[in-house]
Structure formats: C-alpha cells, structure tokens
Amino acid sequence: MPVFNIHHITKYEYDRPVKESVNEIKIYPATDREQEILFQQVNITGDPDILMAKDYWGNMTGMFNLMQSHNELVIETKLIVRTLGPSANPINKETRPEDITKEIQNNLSLLELARPKDIELKEKIFELIAQFQTPDMPVFDIIEKCGQYIYNNFKYIKGITNIETTTKEILELRSGVCQDFAHVMLEVLRYLSIPCRYVSGYICPNTSGLRGEGATHAWVEAWMPGYGWIGNDPTNNVWVTSHHVKLAVGRNFNDCSPVKGTFKGPARQSLSVYVAVSYEDGRSFQDMTKVKMEKIDGTEDPPEYIESFAGQQQQ
Questions:
Q1: Smallest Cα–Cα separation from 64: which of 21, 27, 31?
Q2: Are 233 and 285 in contact (CB under 8 A)?
Q3: Tens-place pLDDT, residues 139-176
Q4: Where are the domains of the chain?
Q5: Domain at 3-84+256-308: CATH code
Q6: Cβ neighbours of residue 283 under 8 Å, at least 6 residues apart?
Q7: Which of 31, 132, 137, 143 has its CA at a distance of 20 to 30 angstroms from the CA of residue 9?
Q8: Is 120 exposed, middle or buried (0-12, 13-18, 19+ CB in 10 A)?
Q9: Secondary structure (3-state) at 213
Q10: What per-residue confidence (pLDDT) applies to 90?
Q11: Residues 263-300: pLDDT tens digits?
C-alpha cells in the first residue's frame, strides 16, 4: 500500500489586473475502497473562503470568489494519499453487455453513462469495434481489448490536441494524450451499452515506466454487475493499479476539470501547471506544463469578460 506525496500548482498570470474571479475546483480526492487521504492542504491567492459541496457525480467541489484586483491566481494543493489497489471482490468475467442492460434499466445515472454522445460517429466507432470484438465477447474482455486496441493504434504525442479537441478529431488524428484516449474509449464502450465514466487524477511512477507519469492523468471506469466500477488505463494498456490516484469522475473531462471559472477584465492570460509526485523514501518526479490558451474570439483586443475553462489538458 504505497503512500504518495503530491504537490500540484495551477498558476494563471494576467498581462493587466483583473477582478471578480469566480472559480470551481475539483482537487479533493475522495476516500473510498481504493484510496485514503492522509493529509491535504489547499492554498489560494488572497486566501478566499471556499464553499464545499458535492456535485451530481459525488465529487467534492470547492467554489470561491476573488473579487479584488489581481495579476495572478495561484491554486496550490499538497496531498498525502495511500493507495489501496483495486477491490478484492470477485469479478464475473463472463458478464455480457445484455446482462448489464437488464440490470441498469431502472438506474438513471448508469443509463446516462451508457448513452453515446456523438451519434454522428456511429459508423466510425463500429468500424473500430470490429477490429477487436468477437461475437459473444464478455464485458471484461471488451474493456481490456478496447484499451489494448487504443494503446496499439493511437500514438501518444503531446501538444497536437487540446481540451477542446473532439472525439471525431482524435479518431482522424489517431494521436493524442490520455484525455483523448479516455474520450475515445468512453464512446466505444457506450456504443456497446456499457456504462462508463471519465476519471481524472494522477499517475504515480513505477519501476516499469508509464506514459504521463508524475503528471495529471485520465482513464476510464466501467460498470461491472456485482463488482462496481473497474478502471482501465488505455494510455498505458493496464488495469488501474495502486499507482493511480483518483481525483474526480464524470461523463467526460468537462465534469472533472480540476479548475474552471471566469474573471472580469480586458486581460490576456497565461497558464502553467506544476505537479510533483514523491515517495516516502524521497524519490520525486516532476512535470511542468505551459498551457496554450485558446483564443476567446476572432478579435485582437481581449474581451472584458473571459471564461478560463480548464486548468490543464490531462497528459
């Protein structure tokens, strides 16, 4: 049961003063059967009061306002977490998609997570499914083969996608990072009527090396009757292990964004994200990302009111 120290800093800088910054943060890991939080400290510019509440998906969410004029906004979290690994409950590896459909027919939340988002992608998605699925394949094997297919056929390349890249674009590029691969996997499983959800978090380094280690990360959880949520990481072609630390869950990245909000003022913003993961023995891994901010509109002058949606594309 490893213990990780995680230091995560999100920093917005503005080329002139802004005010009335209203924000939502999802940087509070839940304590569940797979992990326990030993310590967490959150520091925010101006030390505002943070209103805590749970969202629709059960994520602990903080909301705060920074009304006074400021040239930067820094959100820092220091976290100590012990990961417990996947549940020891037995998994019925013979469960078929039709078995899940029968079980969830009266569960609105699971039905929502089993509904595809991009209906226009039906033909492309089923072409992809045909590459790995065989008749009567159990759900467990579908999940595993889907993650394996994405790992083998999509290139892991940073910088060619962003938080607004669509699943259609990812399928055309056949490249991206963990956030993109998770979104592809979600569409595939939902077209097969398997409830699944996006997971944001961190991936902590291990001896074999993992894509995206030491940084924010994303993977997928699928619903298995009699077991619950089971996690698969298509970026690394692995079932979720004790090196994955979960932050939030939802339909997609938008539900799990670590930071999003608005500010008022005619300013341009830049964003940097720093993540450091260290072990009890002192070994440390760090990741620093300068995030390219998308243009808000087609004009040269920045607008008076800006939504700075996502803290960072997950790597």
A1: 21
A2: no
A3: 999 999 999 999 999 999 988 888 889 999 999 999 99
A4: 3-84+256-308, 97-255
A5: 2.60.40.2250
A6: none
A7: 31
A8: exposed
A9: coil
A10: 86
A11: 998 888 899 999 988 876 666 666 767 665 544 443 44
* Residue 268 identity (one-letter amino acid): R
3-state class of 112 per DSSP? helix
Fill in the DSSP letter of residue 295: P
Cβ burial 150-175 (10 Å sphere, 16+ → b, else e): bbeebebeeeebbbebebeebbeeee
Task: For residue 66, give the amino acid letter.
Answer: L
Structure tokens at 61: 């969410």
Q: pLDDT per residue over 73-123, tens digit each?
A: 999 999 999 998 777 788 999 999 999 998 898 899 999 999 998 788 999
Start-to-end C-alpha separation, the chain = 25
Q: What is the pLDDT of residue 266?
A: 86
Encoded tokens for 283? 């070994």
82 neighbors 92 (Cβ within 8 angstroms): no
211 Cβ contact partners less than 8 Å away, ≥ 6 residues apart? 156, 178, 235, 236
Question: Contact, 178 vs 166, CB < 8 A?
Answer: no
The strand pairing partners of 113, in sequence order, are: none
The burial class, CB within 10 Å (0-12 / 13-18 / 19+), for 2 is: middle
More confident: 297 or 188:
188
Specify the CATH number of the domain 97-255.
Answer: 3.10.620.30
Helix (H, G, I), strand (E, B) or coil at 29: coil
- What's the count of helices (H) and strands (E) in the chain, helices before strands? 7, 16
Are 25 and 62 in contact, with CB atoms under 8 Å apart? yes
pTM exceeding the 0.70 threshold for the entire prediction: yes
Residue type present at position 315: Q
Of 69, 34, 46, 41, the residue nearest 201 (C-alpha): 34
- The 3-state secondary structure of 120-154 reads HHHHHHHHHHCCCCCCCCCHHHHHHHHHHHHHHHC
